[in-house]
Amino acid sequence: MNTLFRRLPSTIILALVAMPVVMSGQTAERSRTQGLKETNQFVKASETTSQAITNGKTELQKTLTAYNTLVTQPSKDMKGDYKKLLKSSDSMNAKVADAKQKIEAMQKTGDTYFSGRAEAIKTIQDPALQSQAQARLTANQQEFAGVLESLRDAGGAFEPLRKQMADQITFLGSDLTPSGMTSLKPQAEKLNTQGAEVFSKTDQALAKGNAYFQGLRTQS
Question: Within a domain: residue 184?
Answer without folding.
Answer: yes
